[in-house]
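In this supplementary section we document a worked example of the pipeline. Step one takes a protein sequence of length 123 as its only input; no multiple sequence alignment statistics are reported here. Step two produces a three-dimensional model, which step three serialises into structure tokens for compact storage. The input and output of this example are shown verbatim.
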Amino acid sequence: MSDKDIESEIQAKGLTAPRVTPDHIESIIAQEAYFTAEDGAFGVAIKAKHTGGEVNYQPHESLSLLTFCVLVLRNGFTVTGESACASPENFAPEIGRKIARENAVNKIWMLEGYLLKQRLSEK
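The serialised model returned by step three reads:
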């Protein structure tokens, strides 16, 4: 069941207490970036080349199967998610990005849930 399905069920039951919603979660995401561990290793090599450091770019093939999602929230805080594909034959970049994003968004739910509970406890 997706977050939106759960929210629809909550609304259908007429529950109106303060809560974190999927729309709220999406509204606080200012930017998102996706890359593989291989992309990161390549970036490190390029940076080393341009700053006079040692360039040792020999990435393991598995680095191309690890996808990261970085979500930048409106307040500047960053949240990360990742997706590791065990079988190279099954690797699909778009699926890796979806899973990595979902994992990052799940972290936002925890943070926003804590923040809401804190606000409610201060009333």
